[in-house]
Structure to design on (130 residues):
């Protein structure tokens, strides 16, 4: 299971009454490594003001790696995180997460980061089995 869903939140979902803030809180508590990674990148983006902020350090263990994969592979989780933080997320390999501000200039940086060329340039034999 990718999220630790409380019985109360599950009951709300069964009734069709899910507040996105409650969902985001569930993500925060269920996937703390992924949350901290994204949150710290958002903070760095705000402080540095560059076209994007990214992480290039592999997760410390398989549990952390799994959290990143679950957070970014799920359309619902990824979308909720993007809306919550007001950014666009991108993901390469097993650990390279990037956050982009919203806007036309950032769209170009995002397109370069997520391009076929960008993916190929981000390859490393050290990451073959990540």
């Amino acid at each position: 299971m990718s999220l630790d869903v409380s019985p109360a939140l599950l009951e709300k979902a069964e009734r069709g009454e899910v507040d996105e803030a409650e969902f985001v809180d569930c993500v925060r508590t269920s996937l703390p490594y992924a949350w901290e990674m994204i949150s710290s990148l958002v903070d760095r983006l705000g402080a540095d003001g560059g076209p994007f902020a990214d992480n290039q350090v592999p997760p410390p263990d398989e549990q952390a790696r799994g959290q990143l994969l679950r957070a970014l592979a799920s359309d619902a989780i990824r979308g909720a995180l993007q809306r919550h933080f007001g950014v666009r997320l991108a993901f390469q390999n097993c650990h390279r997460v990037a956050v982009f501000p919203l806007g036309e200039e950032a769209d170009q940086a995002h397109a370069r980061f997520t391009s076929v060329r960008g993916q190929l340039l981000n390859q490393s034999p050290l990451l073959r089995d990540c």
Residues 31-127 form one domain. The chain is about 60% helix and 10% strand. The longest helix spans residues 32-48.
